[in-house]
Amino acid sequence: MSSERILMPKSLAFAKRIVFAYRYLSEEKKEYVLSKQMLRSGTSIGANIAEAQYGSSRKDFLNKLYIALKECAETLYWLELLYSCDYISRTEYDSLHSDCEELRKLLSSITKSVRDGTIPNS
Predict the structure, then answer these.
(1) Burial of 113: CB neighbours in 10 Å, binned 0-12, 13-18, 19+
(2) Model pLDDT for residues 6-59, shown as the tens digit of each residue
(3) Is residue 119 a part of any domain in this protein?
(4) Domain ranges, residue 76
(5) Alpha carbons 71 and 39: distance in angstroms, whole number
(6) pLDDT > 70: what percent of the chain?
(7) Domain containing 104 — which CATH number?
(8) CA dihedral defined by 72, 75, 80, 83, rounded to 10 degrees?
(9) Which residues contact 93 (CB under 8 A, 6 or more apart)?
(10) Nearest-angstrom CA–CA distance, 79 and 102
(11) Nearest to 55 by CA among 108, 109, 4
């Protein structure tokens, strides 16, 4: 299975984890601001990947993937901040960070390949 085909299920699974983390943070920790930012960026990754699949051109396809990549970077920031402020444990942070970093690496690889013309958009 190509990395492009892996990307959608992985981003959906990650978005679900982010939703559950947001629910935990808002209900158990009573933290609403940082967790809402994490929710927005973390779920936006998959939304932009889904949009990219129906891009009107190669440029549009690539642009949506770049936006997803930027949302990954933002999500990594919010996770780091939530961890450093003791809202999430080291175990929770490591797990979410690892999944987000995997998405970031996949997106980085795909955008580079599409940009360089080594794989077509699909």
Answers:
(1) middle
(2) 999 999 999 999 999 999 999 999 999 999 999 999 999 999 999 999 999 999
(3) no
(4) 3-113
(5) 11
(6) 93
(7) 1.20.1440.60
(8) -140
(9) 79, 80, 82, 83
(10) 14
(11) 4
